[in-house]
Write a structure and sequence with these properties.
Elements: H1 2-14, H2 27-34, H3 39-44, H4 49-71, H5 81-90, H6 95-101, H7 103-116, H8 123-126, E1 131-136, E2 142-146, E3 150-154, E4 165-168, H9 175-188, H10 190-193, H11 199-202, H12 212-220, H13 222-239, H14 248-260, H15 264-279, H16 282-300, H17 304-319, H18 323-333, H19 341-370
Length: 372
């Protein structure tokens, strides 16, 4: 910018007529200019006094413009969106604004407490199983629905001894608190999402902005749901048992502990990790293999609580490389959806192996040292 102002000044100097013999120029100064060793001055015969004056005048004009630029007289750059956002962020927020912006967090916790603590009297009502609606589904079984929308499927495939299936719609933590709090948040802050839309345009079924997060969530949960269906099916099959027969988990724990003896402790952590690896959850791993570990501990004469502790440690171990967890994270992030699951497993494998060795060593000390 400064150089351009000087260039304008020099161009202005070239437009001024020049004349030799201008008054006030000493002769010896002209001799000095004429005898200069500069190639430029030799080729052109050297500038006269008017040339110098005009150049100084043009340079002065450029310098003045440069001074104006430094003093801030030139137009300033328009502030960007990031600058405005940073300035707004730097402002002190009031307590009510902080409380409102953190509503999704404390609202979820508060609603969980209200619906889970028995003293509030809501917990039992959400789990009420007394059927108000009975639907016979033929060979598929009998469907019962309570007033709290507790859905139960019994006599599956016409077998009265078959395990029943139950789903407490409002007690299982999905609709309450997550869907409820998310919906309230979208309604409270609807002006941030779509300032120009009316309330009815905003909540227009499946077209308003209110439904956008839910639609994106459903799309992202497609692949994780498929992966988790297989894991939960495996857990149900391992723990299922008919009247007078042991479940596969009991049979597995008895046979393997008889074969491995005390060597079972060496694989106890791995078994817990295997369950979490497929299911993506320590809870599901415990549901699947806790019975196996308990049977093995009883068969070997070891402390059941210590063996179950190794099971839980193994479940945490498996979470590091669980396929279900990786799929869920990829779905939530959205930026790594093209990266294969094997890449995540391979990078976590060294830490998982070290974790397994340390946990197994502690298990031997606990079962054969402290417990004895």
């Amino acid at each position: 910018m400064i150089l351009s102002h000087f260039k304008i000044g020099l161009n202005y100097a070239e437009m001024i007529p020049t004349a030799k013999g201008s008054p006030g120029v000493e002769e010896d100064e002209e001799d000095v200019l004429e005898t200069s060793t500069s190639p430029l001055l030799k080729d052109t015969g050297g500038p006269d006094q008017d040339d110098i004056a005009a150049s100084l005048e043009g340079g002065g004009a450029g310098a003045g413009a440069a001074t104006d630029f430094v003093d801030g007289d030139t137009p300033k750059k328009e502030p960007s969106f990031q600058d405005e956002e940073a300035d707004e962020f730097e402002q002190n927020l009031s307590a009510s604004e902080v409380l409102g912006n953190t509503f999704p967090i404390w609202g979820t916790v508060l609603l969980l407490i209200i619906t889970r603590v028995p003293q509030f009297g809501i917990n039992d009502r959400l789990q009420e199983t007394t059927p108000d609606v009975n639907i016979h589904l033929g060979t598929f079984g009998d469907l019962h629905i309570s007033r709290s929308v507790n859905i139960t499927l019994m006599n599956i495939f016409g077998d009265p001894d078959a395990p029943s299936w139950n789903f407490a719609f409002f007690f299982v933590p999905w609709f309450i608190p997550f869907i409820v709090i998310a919906s309230c948040t979208m309604l409270i802050y609807r002006k941030r999402v779509d300032p120009d839309a009316t309330f009815f345009e905003y909540i227009r079924p499946f077209r308003g902005q209110f439904w956008t997060p839910m639609k994106e969530g459903i799309v992202r949960m497609k692949n994780p749901t498929i992966a988790l269906l297989g894991a939960t099916t495996l857990a149900a099959l391992l723990t299922a048992s008919s009247a007078g027969e042991n479940s596969p988990a009991v049979a597995l724990g008895t046979v393997l502990s008889d074969a491995l003896k005390d060597g079972w402790v060496a694989i106890a952590v791995l078994i817990g990790g295997l369950g979490a690896f497929f299911a993506g959850s320590t809870a599901v791993s415990n549901l699947t293999f806790a019975q196996v570990q308990s049977v093995a501990a009883t068969n070997l004469g070891l402390m059941t609580t210590s063996m179950l502790a190794l099971q839980s440690v193994g479940g945490n171990l498996g979470n590091q490389i669980a396929i279900g967890n990786i799929v869920l994270v990829k779905a939530i992030m959205g930026t790594v959806k093209d990266v294969p699951e094997g890449v995540f497993i391979w990078k976590n494998l060294p830490v998982t192996a070290l974790y397994c060795l340390v946990a197994t060593a502690c298990g031997f000390v606990l079962l054969f040292g402290i417990d004895n």
